[in-house]
Amino acid sequence: MKLVFVLVSSLCLLSKADEISNRRFPDDFLIGVASASYQIEGAWNEDGKGENIWDRFTHDDPSRIADKSTGDIACDSYHLYKEDVALIKAVGLDFYRFSISWSRILPTGYADSVNIAGVNYYKNLIKELKDNGIEPMPALYHWDLPQPLQEIGGWLNETIVDIFADYAKLCYQLFGDDIKTWITINEPKQVCLAGYEGGGFAPGIVSPGVGVYNCAYNLIKAHAKAFHIYDEEFRPKQNGRISMIIDAVWYEPGSDSDADKEAAERDVIFLFGLYADPIFKGNWPQVVIDRIAMRSKGEGLEKSRLPEFTPEEQTYIAGTADFLALNHYTTHMVNASTVEPEFGGPSFGKDINVIEWDLDNWETAGAGWFKIVPWGFRKLLVWLYNYYQTEIFVTENGLSDFNGTMTDDHRITFLQTYLTALLQAIYEDGVNVTGYTYWSIIDDWEWTGGFTSKMGFYAVDFNSTERTRTPRKSADYFTNVMKTRCLVDSCV
Ligand SMILES: *[C@@H]1O[C@H](CO)[C@@H](O)[C@H](O)[C@H]1NC(C)=O
Ligand SMILES: *[C@@H]1O[C@H](CO)[C@@H](O)[C@H](O)[C@H]1NC(C)=O
Ligand SMILES: *[C@@H]1O[C@H](CO)[C@@H](O)[C@H](O)[C@H]1NC(C)=O
Ligand SMILES: *[C@@H]1O[C@H](CO)[C@@H](O)[C@H](O)[C@H]1NC(C)=O
Ligand SMILES: *[C@@H]1O[C@H](CO)[C@@H](O)[C@H](O)[C@H]1NC(C)=O
C-alpha cells in the first residue's frame, strides 16, 4: 500500500516538472557561472605559486583520478582568462564566481610572504570582468590548501583559524574595493567528509567518525573569523556581502511513514545542517549532538566525538552569513534503518544511520550518483527556506555527461526542468531565491573524475596546447535565456 503511494506521488511530481515554465525570471534575479582555481587555472608551479594539497594528491598517486590526469595545465585559464571572460560576456551572464588559489598568492600559506605575480593574476582577472560588465564573485577557498599548511595538520589544526583569517584579510585589502559578494569557503562537506573521513579527496586522510567533525569545527571557526574581519574592518567602506557555500542533496522520504520522514530530514541535517546550523543559528543541530553523543558513549568514549562550541563561540559564530549560498545537483530516496549499527569502529554513516536508494526511473547523464530529479530541487529550496528563513542564492547547479556531445539537448532539458523547479519555488511557494549559477562556462578538470566529466557550455579540447574552447548547443540556448530571461520561446 505504501509502495503504491510512493510511486504515484513521485509520478505526479515528475509530470509536473516536465512542464517547462513560461514565466520570466524576476527583474533583479542574477544569473552567472562558477569555476574553481585548481579545476581551470593550470600553471601549477609557475610565477612563484606554491604547492597545494591537490597538486600533491594527484602527483603522489595518479590512480586516484579516473583518467590518471592532474590539474597541472587544466584549461590553462592562468594564461587564457581573457578568453574565459569573453565567453561569459558572449552568453550575457551577470556574474562570474571563481576561486582564489591560496598558494598562488601565499606560496607558504602564511600572509608574511606575498607572491606579487599571483596577486596580479587576480587583479587582472577582476579588471577584465569589470571592464566587460561582469560582476566578480570570488571564493577564498575551493579545496586547494597550501601544502605547508597540510604538514601541520591542515583543517585539523586549530591554528588554521588564524592563518585563514590572515589570508582572508589580505584578500579583502587587495581586491575588496571591487568585490560586492565574497565567499569564504566552498562546500565544507567535501573538504571535511571527502577529505578527512573517507579520504577520497585531498588530503586523503582516513579518520572515520572523527576527522570530519574536527575539520568542521575548525573550518566553521575560520569562516566566522573571516566574516567578522570583513564585517568590522571592510564592510563599512567596501559595502559587500559575504557567506559560506554549502552543498545539499535533497533526501526524499521513501514512504509517508514518520520514521522515513524523520530519517530523510536527519540526512539533510547531518549533511547540510552540520555546517549551516552553526553559522545561521550558532550551534550544531540538536539531532547531530544527540546521536554522536549516544554513539560515542556506546563506543566506550568518555567524551563525544563531536567537539563542543563554547557559549562564547556560539555567539561569535551565529549570524556569520549574509545569505544562504547553495550548491545543488541531485536527490536520493531515504528509508529509516530499523537497526542501530553495532558499536564498533565509529563512522559518519553509522552516526546518521539511514538507508539511501534511488528510484529505477531516475535518469542520469554521467556519473551514476548524479540522478536528474528537478522536483527534488524545488522541495529542497522550500525546506531550506522554511528552516533557515533567509534569502537563498544558488551558487552551483549543472549537468555532467561523459560523451561531451556538442548537440547537448539533454543539458538544455536539464536547464529547463531545474530552472522551472526554481521558478516554481519563487512564484508558487514564495521562496526568496535571488540568484542562479551554472557550473560551468567551460569543461574543466572534475576532481577524481579528471577530464572524463563534461559540464561546460563550451567544450575544451584538452589535447590541444591552445585548449581550444568551442560552444555547445547549450551555450546558444542559454545566451537566449539571458536575452529574454525566459526558458522557452516566449514568456508571459
Ligand atoms: C524503502 O522503503 C520502500 C517502501 O517502504 C520499499 O519499497 C523499498 O524497498 C525500501 N528500499 C530500501 C533500499 O530499503
Ligand atoms: C599546529 O600548528 C602549529 C603552527 O601553527 C604547530 O606549531 C603545531 O605543532 C601544530 N600542531 C600539530 C598537532 O601538528
Ligand atoms: C551523450 O550522452 C547523453 C546523456 O546520457 C545522451 O543523452 C546523448 O544522446 C549522448 N550523445 C551521444 C552523441 O552519444
Ligand atoms: C529577498 O531577500 C532580500 C535580501 O534579504 C530582500 O532584500 C528582498 O526584499 C527579499 N525578497 C522577497 C521577495 O522577500
Ligand atoms: C585526447 O584524444 C584521444 C584520442 O582522440 C581521446 O581518446 C582522449 O579522450 C583525449 N583526451 C582528452 C583529455 O580529451
UniProtKB/TrEMBL annotation:
It is an enzyme of class 3 (hydrolase). The keyword Nucleus does not apply. Its EC number is 3.2.1.21. GO terms for biological process: carbohydrate metabolic process. Keywords: Glycoprotein, Glycosidase, Hydrolase, Signal. Residues 1-17 form the signal peptide. The active site is at E396. GO terms for molecular function: beta-glucosidase activity. It comes from the Eukaryota. InterPro entries: GH, Glyco_hydro_1, Glyco_hydro_1_AS. Belongs to the glycosyl hydrolase 1 family. Homodimer. This is beta-glucosidase.
